[in-house]
Amino acid sequence: MKKYLLLLTGLFLAFTPPAREPISKEMAAAVTAFIKTFDEEQRKLALYPFNDNERYVWYYTPVPRKGLSMKKMNPDQQKAAMALVKLAMSEQGYEKTTAIMDMENVLRVQENRPPNDTHRDPINYFFTFFGEPNSKEPWGWRLNGHHLLWQFSSLTGKVSGMTPTFLGSNPDIVRVDVPQKGKQILKKEAELGLALVNSLNSDQLTMALISETSPQEIFTTNVRKASIEKMEGIPFPKLTESQQKTFLALLDTYLNNYHVTLKNQQMDKLKKVGLDKLVFAWAGDRQPGFGPGKGQYYRIHGPTLLIEYDNAQNQANHTHTVVRDLTSDFGEDVLAEHYKSQH
């Protein structure tokens, strides 16, 4: 176990950006200032009690949503909204978020829609706030739209909930003749997953391979409580040292999307349960070998964390990824402790 922690420490020191100021007070101040700019109609759209069931409702398909759309914000409010997004995540996470929103412009062209089409619209993304920021009562906010979900919860003055998180891209690689041609937003997620599965020997692959057919969708979809019945795959200790580095680089690719404080909170959970409890599972066509252009699915699964990656739709050019905290999606574990102490 000590060897794993040393490996983890060395790798994450290399990948982790310099720490910023603690996020809780900054986020509370930014949300408070943002909400003050809302008129009455905007408040009705954007604000919900923290205990409203709407907090658990999210979609990654282009469907109607509740909340305040960026389309219904003035330019200054749109800037404030994106400043809040930038505050909550790393530079990498912010770049992926804005690129996913911009992918709606690609889909307009790819689907031959007119320039004023609203079904594919880069500002058709919704901000929703649950409760109002304070240090004693729970509150939170989310950003949700096509292929995008960021969900944050603050309990007793500390931002402790940062999942579910969903990032997707259609197309995965832009091939139509547009300024974004060649763009692949989730490139590292794809390349590191393939690098890991292709490094496995036959005995290791027997453990890792759960199916020779990739599913058409992530298993957990958008359910309130994520659960996969069996923890299948190759355990972390069964990987070579080189493979463990690839595994951790893949894990880091997902966690590095968050503000460093939130990333470190998730890493602390992983360290407590132990890296040896994590498994890597793969599903996909391996004839003659795993590679781009074929359906691919993998997951990283442990007692506290589930990460899923799927690229099978649209001839394996449509990617979905999700991060679920199995102990505290929507901040549920800290919330339960808060209500228990209040009682």
TrEMBL record:
Signal peptide residue numbers: 1-19
UniProtKB keywords: Signal
Pfam families with a match to the protein in the record: DUF3500
PANTHER family linked: DUF3500 DOMAIN-CONTAINING PROTEIN
Protein name (database record): DUF3500 domain-containing protein
